[in-house]
Amino acid sequence: MTELAAVKAALRTQAVETPSWAYGNSGTRFKVFAQQGVPRTPREKLEDAGQVHAFTGVAPTVALHIPWDKVEDYTALAKYAEERGVRLGAINSNTFQDDDYKLGSICHPEAAVRRKAVDHLLECVDIMDATGSRDLKLWFADGTNYPGQDDIRGRQDRLAEGLAEVYERLGDGQRMLLEYKFFEPAFYTTDVPDWGTAYAHCLKLGPKAQVVVDTGHHAPGTNIEFIVATLLREGKLGGFDFNSRFYADDDLMVGAADPFQLFRIMYEVVRGGGFTSDVAFMLDQCHNIEAKIPAIIRSVMNVQEATAKALLVDRDALSVAQASGDVLAANAVLMDAYNTDVRPLLREVREEMGLDPEPLAAYARSGWAEEIVASRVGGEQAGWGA
Amino acid sequence: MTELAAVKAALRTQAVETPSWAYGNSGTRFKVFAQQGVPRTPREKLEDAGQVHAFTGVAPTVALHIPWDKVEDYTALAKYAEERGVRLGAINSNTFQDDDYKLGSICHPEAAVRRKAVDHLLECVDIMDATGSRDLKLWFADGTNYPGQDDIRGRQDRLAEGLAEVYERLGDGQRMLLEYKFFEPAFYTTDVPDWGTAYAHCLKLGPKAQVVVDTGHHAPGTNIEFIVATLLREGKLGGFDFNSRFYADDDLMVGAADPFQLFRIMYEVVRGGGFTSDVAFMLDQCHNIEAKIPAIIRSVMNVQEATAKALLVDRDALSVAQASGDVLAANAVLMDAYNTDVRPLLREVREEMGLDPEPLAAYARSGWAEEIVASRVGGEQAGWGA
Amino acid sequence: MTELAAVKAALRTQAVETPSWAYGNSGTRFKVFAQQGVPRTPREKLEDAGQVHAFTGVAPTVALHIPWDKVEDYTALAKYAEERGVRLGAINSNTFQDDDYKLGSICHPEAAVRRKAVDHLLECVDIMDATGSRDLKLWFADGTNYPGQDDIRGRQDRLAEGLAEVYERLGDGQRMLLEYKFFEPAFYTTDVPDWGTAYAHCLKLGPKAQVVVDTGHHAPGTNIEFIVATLLREGKLGGFDFNSRFYADDDLMVGAADPFQLFRIMYEVVRGGGFTSDVAFMLDQCHNIEAKIPAIIRSVMNVQEATAKALLVDRDALSVAQASGDVLAANAVLMDAYNTDVRPLLREVREEMGLDPEPLAAYARSGWAEEIVASRVGGEQAGWGA
Amino acid sequence: MTELAAVKAALRTQAVETPSWAYGNSGTRFKVFAQQGVPRTPREKLEDAGQVHAFTGVAPTVALHIPWDKVEDYTALAKYAEERGVRLGAINSNTFQDDDYKLGSICHPEAAVRRKAVDHLLECVDIMDATGSRDLKLWFADGTNYPGQDDIRGRQDRLAEGLAEVYERLGDGQRMLLEYKFFEPAFYTTDVPDWGTAYAHCLKLGPKAQVVVDTGHHAPGTNIEFIVATLLREGKLGGFDFNSRFYADDDLMVGAADPFQLFRIMYEVVRGGGFTSDVAFMLDQCHNIEAKIPAIIRSVMNVQEATAKALLVDRDALSVAQASGDVLAANAVLMDAYNTDVRPLLREVREEMGLDPEPLAAYARSGWAEEIVASRVGGEQAGWGA
Predict the structure, then answer these.
(1) Where is the Xylose isomerase-like TIM barrel domain (chains A, B, C, D) (predicted)?
(2) pLDDT (tens digit, 0 to 9) for every residue of chain A, 386 residues total?
(3) pLDDT tens-place string over residues C174-184
């Protein structure tokens, strides 16, 4: 297989999971702007996800969020997904929207609230059993707003205790992905604020516990690719929540704010063997003002483009330049790949997969956008909290 | 008058405006946790504000937010305020919660939306005429989320045009306070992102246009007291929106995150003559998880303590040390004031004003908290958007 | 002229000024790593700059730094520059390396130090008269390290006074470019910390005073293209100091850290008419660990590539998408230009200019690097402070 | 023992190590401003450190930096220290000022350079044997400036290998303290950029490897006290390098930029048992523009004040408020301690220790400052690199 053929083969097998909630309404604390045609049910979200996969060919699974996507019969839901061309993916827990969680969930000072939170997580594993999902993705809104509000260290003890109980419940082939976040919604301390905290907990829990990197969850200036390289080296990178940001956790389309950073991240994934391992590539975005399905298609394409560039890096030439200490030559090797316009290559890959080379144009022509606006009338649109 | 007497006199005449919306529910994009006893009407907000003033003695006015505080009869509202011991303060506009404002208000690409936004601002001036308010506080959520989304420069032109129309409408003794904000809810560009932009617009508009500094609206590391000193030097500091933050626009209680910064800001106010001028001192906070009225009382007290320390700086000794280039001595003069425990002094001031020296304890004993929980049942609680 | 021809014509006339000091040694506070072949005299710097221009064709001028480039006879220096194919450019002042400047220069508490600083600036204008330079570039290291150290507002008064005296001295066709910087070497206050401060001073001084944007001199997250658009709209953008940074004022090669940001900046320049006006495009970089001449060639090429992409934006399509509020379409128009590989176009432009299409390879083949290592032996290498 | 007596007892036994290099000249990349009377030899640094301890009573040890403090006979140096009332403390390595280290030291791509770096570290352990020092403090300037420059993961492998060799060499009772730093002097990647990386390496190395927290080495907004609490919980907090910063690694006097943060850090130390354990409290500062000895005295006092406030926190009341979820009450307990003026208490403590209650005034009266200016004439002043 030629090198280019290998690159193409890798691109054909890429899988980017889309999140059910990105198809629903979202917004800021100031306002949620509703959009027409937004899904009202988990099934309608799967229909939209099916569109994204139909046009991109690389978005075969859909992450669920419990309780937003809670249904009576997960087997039926999984079957419906398959009918729409996709499969159910990671289960995302929610321990931040119940009134009991005002001061935290798994780290709450009261044992009763912690019990409730852990029970919810255990329920999520039950759902994983039903859906056949591999990953339980855990993000905790836990933290404090004011110095002194709660005991920083005590909260870590409670966190460790709760996670351990859930870890024990995991079946063979199931994983727990622990997400960290710099801040928000907690404004003074966050109980899992950085990769180090997530790593330390996962290390103690065991091999089924892995860290998930949300690209929007870091302090200003943080070198994310360094974290990716480090977690891969430690065997502790479970997956990504992709999105992009200029300021805080803006949840914009991945690749929209700093495409060079996304390329560098994907290069470390490739270099560290993450592209062919169990690392999960997921989107976690909010399309507050732009059309949702095309935004998700665009996001998937942005990941593809960054991946293609990363795969095109001449790693032999890079190693030679690095070993010789030639700073400019080594940088030039990386930049050569980045500066390449990979869109023609991806058009070829899509045609070889039997897809339209231009997913966005093809989606626009498909009439789906008009169809859902016409048909999804009445009912309550899905959204955060819906 | 001795120096201490002068400090006390200054502290007695201090006025911190509380915002009607801080008495209502608030939260993050993830969740608004409702609290018991929260006001359901503008009048109930005024009642709570009356409590804050009753116990602190230095919170005589209440800022209104339109349309959240829209009423039929502002004269009656003003009269009700007076009955509760307070007066109506600044009028705050809202051009961010209508569906039309998804892509902006006064800077929106469509003329019709801009017209609607400007009309709202003109209506706010009408309300100012009715309430006798001096200040129109303008904060725009306008901006863009993605590079290319709109024309950065064109939006400035639209902003200038809209502001000019509103400026013309201002009566004698009325002012327009233009607030800047680093980001949120816009995530790529914000149309008034920094003091420089607000200043440039206000300068062109004229003397009735002034800049307002929200202490939570800056890039990480920004030296806010420098901005305060500069705006006072330029005669363009209209007022403050006080709150505190560790990360973004966290809207925590002022003085809770960095009390030394608050002291430095108040010192520049004192040094620049801002304490005895038309600078408006307002709170703009969200008490998402803590009890609202005590949080506001505490915030007012935090401003008082910072002010007291700023007034206690030995400015003569400071000038001598500064002029001689004695870095450590000059710093020590400032720190001596900051390290002073001014709570005994403030207790005295309160007693001299006929108040309980301990506002929080006195409020707790008053029974108000229990009374509103018992009486404010049913109806819709006030909150952002309510 | 076709559109592509117009783009090429614009690229052929682009002019990027290189700084004399970038050819000398530089480093961090921890260590300056000397490099072989580094110039020892202003003439040798001009020789190196001549190489950069010879291979890129778009670096026709060289900025001088006084006193680092102080010579007896500036006419002779200008003549020597011309012999090496370049011209003398902006004069950069230095008021930060004399022992007297420990607590500032033009803002120093002592009048004698301020006098010395202003005299130096006036001397720089004398040199401009001799060199025929248009621009005096002013960057002040002035500020304080500790709260209380000096009077923030008083320093602004001194700054205004000093600048006014220098402004008066400017001849016809001469300009004063005032640079702002977020922090460093001052760690608490900086006397010109942001574009707003520079703008306010320049506005009062008059039309010959313009703001210069150093791309490394902002708070984390600052939207630089917004500032560029705003200053162009105000008629106050004097020029750029290009470099790139991940953290603070890292002074890396422009385009190395965030090439998408550089593109967005260049787009605002093009959109705002800055490309065909008096805006000066200068590099201000430190090649601490990489070979200096190739790093500067690469930097010039990076500016060219960003400019080419900016020129390729389909502005009509962009305007249509923006006016219609189609967020994704508008973003896509911008991204289409950015994702284009413009290196073939630039190779063509170079060939049409009679240059080698690959400046770095051509420079490497030229033998200049080996020549200077062999010949520049002995003497004192140029560097900051040398 | 009453509670106050316990607080006083704790304050009397506090030990803050001062760094030999803080007595020498320092500066920024722009300029080092030399000061009169600065030490020229390790012995003169010890003399100055002796003054700091003589007046504060809580600075009994001095950190050495190799090779800046390299001497023939460490036993003699230790004896000289004792004569001046102090003892030798941690040994700090230097792998950043040799020309070989341009691209790194222990992580350098070339084995020969790594060998040299590791040999230096082993030499430092030899010196520890001679001085009786417990701690080897490791800070590496290693990293890269440009994407692609070197292999991020490969550098971690080299780091691990080098550290392991040094770890093996440690004797009983000796420790390796690994310091992390966000950036500088490397501007793209840093090989130990955060606590997570330092922690992961220390964990693998074993119990003698511990993390050191430099308070100036974090991304903007990082919650340092969270890291302190976490490392104490993990048994991996080896010590502190205290200083303060507004922007980057400003190395200002500890407590000068954010005294409330320092208090919160010290509270977590107290709460986590760190105050009575093996946690090393060291200063790492640069007194670029202020007089050095008084700056260090002031810094030690600032640590004392923060410690006193932390010890005064009513932990029982805090626990009650935290357990009940009373956000405002819990915050108030912490703030009560912070708002206390502890200077009178510290004056008492000093008097009980037989010291002058006002260390700075006593030092000023002592004549030492004048003495060293008069006597330390000629020779080469100590400084970074000297």
Answers:
(1) 55-245
(2) 678 999 999 999 999 999 999 999 999 999 999 999 999 999 999 999 999 999 999 999 999 999 999 999 999 999 999 999 999 999 999 999 999 999 999 999 999 999 999 999 999 999 999 999 999 999 999 999 999 999 999 999 999 999 999 999 999 999 999 999 999 999 999 999 999 999 999 999 999 999 999 999 999 999 999 999 999 999 999 999 999 999 999 999 999 999 999 999 999 999 999 887 899 999 999 999 999 999 999 999 999 999 999 999 999 999 999 999 999 999 999 999 999 999 999 999 999 999 999 999 999 999 999 999 999 999 999 987 54
(3) 999 999 999 99
Q: Which residues of A touch D225 (CB under 8 A)?
A: 152
> How far is the CA of B209 from the CAs of A139, B108, B165, B205, C30, in angstroms?
45, 22, 12, 6, 48
Do residues B382 and B68 lie in contact, with contact meaning Cβ atoms separated by under 8 Å? yes
Closest by CA position to C5, among listed C345, C356, C328: C345
Please name each of the domains of chain B with its CATH number: 12-312+358-376 (3.20.20.150), 313-355 (no CATH)
* Residue whose C-alpha is closest to residue B297's, from B108, B16, B6, B1: B16
DSSP B179: E
Cβ atoms D58, D366 nearer than 8 A: no
Closest CA of chain C from D173, distance in Å: 31
Smallest CA–CA distance from B287 into chain A, residue: A145
Any chains having at least 3 CB pairs less than 8 A from chain D are: A, B, C
Q: What is the DSSP string of D120-187?
A: HHHHHHHHHHHHT--EEEE----EESSTTSS-HHHHHHHHHHHHHHHHHH--TT-EEEEE--SSSS-S
The reply to whether residue A327 touches residue C289, judged by beta carbons under 8 angstroms, is yes
How would you class A252 by CB atoms within 10 Å of its CB: exposed for 0-12, middle for 13-18, buried for 19 or more? buried
CA distance C100 to C345: 51
The Cα–Cα gap between A210 and D316 comes to 37
Looking up tokens 């040398």 gives C386
CB spacing of C187 vs D246 below 8 angstroms: yes
Instruction: To the nearest 10°, report the CA torsion of C362, C368, C369, C370.
Output: 120
Residue from the list A305, A328, A341 with its beta carbon closest to the beta carbon of C298 = A328
Q: Which of B223, B233, B331 to mutate to test the interface with C (most CBs of C within 10 A)?
A: B223
Both tokens of D248, joined, read 């980057």
Contacts of D270 in chain A (CB under 8 A): none
Chain B residue with minimum CA distance to A149: B290
Q: Do B103 and C230 touch (CB under 8 A)?
A: no
Specify burial of residue D380 (Cβ count, 10 A radius: 0-12, 13-18, 19+).
exposed
* Chain mean position to CA B68: 17
Counting as contact any 3 or more CB pairs under 8 A, the partners of C are: A, B, D
- Buried-exposed string B48-68: b where 16+ CB fall within 10 A, e elsewhere: bbbbbbbbbbbbbbbbbbbbb
Kindly write down the DSSP assignment for every residue of B42-77, as one continuous string.
HHHHHHHHHHHHHHHS---EEEEETTTT--S-HHHH
Residues of C within 8 A of B160 (CB-CB) are: none
Query: Residue D290: its chain C contacts at CB < 8 A?
Result: 145-146
Q: Which residues of D touch A220 (CB under 8 A)?
A: 219-221
CB contact under 8 A, C295 and A221: no
CA distances from B241 to A279, B19, B92, B212, B301 (A): 45, 10, 12, 7, 15
Tokens 């010291």, residue?
A: D355
Among A196, A220, A322, select the one facing D194 at the smallest CB separation: A196
Residues of C in contact with A289 (CB under 8 A): 327
Residue of A26, A99, A252 lying closest to B146 (CB–CB): A252
